Amino acid sequence: MGWLRRLVPKSLFVRLTVVLLAVLSLAQVGSAWIHYRERGHLLYYAAGLNAAERVAGIVRLLDSVDPADRHRVMEALSVPPLAIRLLDEPVPLPGRRNYGTQVELLHRFLHRYLGEERPVRVWAGPEEQWAPSRPPPRHRPAVPPRAMWEMHRAMHGPEPDASGAPQLVSFIVETQLGDGQWVLVESVLPRSLFAWPYRLLASLALLAASVFLVTVIAVRWLTRPLAELARAADELGRDMRRAPLPEKGPLEVQRAARAFNRMQARILRFLEDRFRILAAVSHDLKTPVTRLRLRAEMLDDESLRQKICRDLEEMNEMLQGALDFIRGIETQEGTREVDLGALLESLQDDAREAGHRMMLRVPRGLTVPARPLALKRCLDNLLTNAIVYGGGAEVWVEDLPGEVRVVVADRGPGIPEAELEHVFEPFYRLEGSRSRQTGGSGLGLSIARNIARAHGGELTLHNRPGGGLEAVLVLPKA
User: Fold this and answer.
1) Sheet holding 120-126: strands in order across?
2) Is 4 exposed, middle or buried (CB count within 10 Å of its CB: 0-12, 13-18, 19+)?
3) What does the mean pLDDT of the chain come to?
4) Domain check: are 115 and 254 in the same one?
5) Would you state the pLDDT for residue 393?
6) Residue 213 located in a structural domain
7) Is the pLDDT reported for residue 90 higher than 80?
8) Pairing of the two strands 458-463 and 469-476
9) Are 425 and 446 in contact (CB under 8 A)?
10) Is 2 part of any domain?
11) Is the pLDDT of residue 341 over 50?
């Protein structure tokens, strides 16, 4: 069953389209089959009734005239595509019967018009099956094949065979007159009378194409609000202040858009309140920390004073990191196309001016949609980590289909595999980084990942095979 589930389309649009088209196709095929059967029944009935009336009329007329005048009457009635012959004995008909339904129908009609007691023999089939067993007609009028073909084409539109000649069907009726003489009536009919109704099939194909087009348009119209809702939900993760969804369309769509907009407004209010409280607390705590530092400077015990100042400095770094963390998430900066190469080159110049080593490989003219200051801060945090813990940074940029990868690598000690995700948690620091030489509040990577995800990208860490760490920043191109 797994392979069957893999065949099921993933898209709601494709699923609805397939289901509707399958149901409509089955209904159309069923109705076409019923229509074709009904058409065939009516066609056979009308053709049989017409032929039976003509043959019955000819037989009654020949029965009513003097036997000496029958040949003259027969010649007058033998008008193409009808041929009449008078026989002393019935001509053997081919053993193989074709068009059995039509034959039985005509047989019943002839018995109805001529009586059950009169012997009647009927055969229908391709003309070539009858011609070899038929004696040369003495009284069959010579009709040019071209003229007969034009007449049949005008009446029935038969199809030519591979050689271009019309495909004809012989319709043979043998019956006995009242004085014992036999009469044979042959009518050459176009095979298209019993062929597939191509015009009907063409109209059904046109109807099927119209149904397909209308179905695709209708399903697309119905599923478009869902696609817009999914796109809005995806954009909400990047920009909490995105424009609200338009509340229009069917009633259910309006309700869904209204609920989504209310949810967005509630989340935004909640985040703003949280950021405001955290920013206020972090800012207000800096005042008592400053007072404690001034008071610690007045202590006589040098060792105790240094320990207190060190703790206060660490607290101040944590407060500043918290403020930076909040500012990295809550920003009013707009998005625009940023030249990634120029941005990285400016960071490279800053690093070299500070005496740090940084190698850079980036394609020229590569741009990404981003908030410039936020992206610069994200890259600066990654470069600072590489310089502080690895002694230098190697940066290269890969231009891939649909995305850009920025790799910031170093040759430092790396990070244990189990800690590669934990280091993105706020205020989480490895034991090796808690010294005064490295310092840090444990928020740099958290801020960098939040900025990356706010741009619709991702930030991951990987240990390098030869030692060191790689920070891989993936940014979408659109």
Assistant:
1) 82-87, 182-190, 168-176, 120-126
2) exposed
3) 77
4) no
5) 92
6) no
7) yes
8) antiparallel
9) yes
10) no
11) yes
Nearest Cα to 410, choosing from 370, 469, 460? 469
Sign of the dihedral through C-alpha 352, 355, 358, 359: positive
Are residues 348 and 303 located together in one domain of the fold? no
Per the structure block, which two tokens stand in for 28? 């159309």
Contact 369, 336 (CB under 8 A): yes
pLDDT at 130: 54
What is the separation, in whole angstroms, between the first and last Cα of the chain? 38
The string of pLDDT tens digits covering residues 413-471 is 888 888 888 888 876 766 544 334 445 556 788 888 888 888 888 999 999 888 889 99
Query: Does residue 214 lie in a domain region?
Result: no
Handedness of CA 250, 252, 258, 263 (dihedral sign): negative
Contact between 290 and 263 under an 8 Å Cβ cutoff? The reply is no
- How many independent structural domains does the chain possess? 3
Domain that holds residue 286: 239-330
Give ∠ CA 291-296-299 in degrees, rounded to 5: 140
DSSP E strands in 37-166: the ranges are 82-87, 120-126
pTM, two decimal places: 0.47
Concatenating the DSSP letter of every residue in 133-173 gives: GSPPPSSPPP--HHHHHHHHHHHT-PPB-TTS-B-EEEEEE
When pLDDT is cut at 50, 70 and 90, the band that residue 405 belongs to is very high
Phi then psi dihedrals of residue 114, to 5 deg: -105, -10
The secondary structure of residue 354, as a DSSP letter, is: T
Q: Which of 257, 263, 234, 139 has its CA nearest to residue 453?
A: 234
Q: What is the DSSP string of 181-203?
A: -EEEEEEEEEGGGGS--HHHHHH
CB-based contact 141:148 (threshold 8 Å): no
Q: Which residues pair with 418 in a beta bridge?
A: none
In Å, how far are 158, 189, 192, 216, 242 from 155, measured between CA atoms?
A: 9, 10, 11, 41, 70
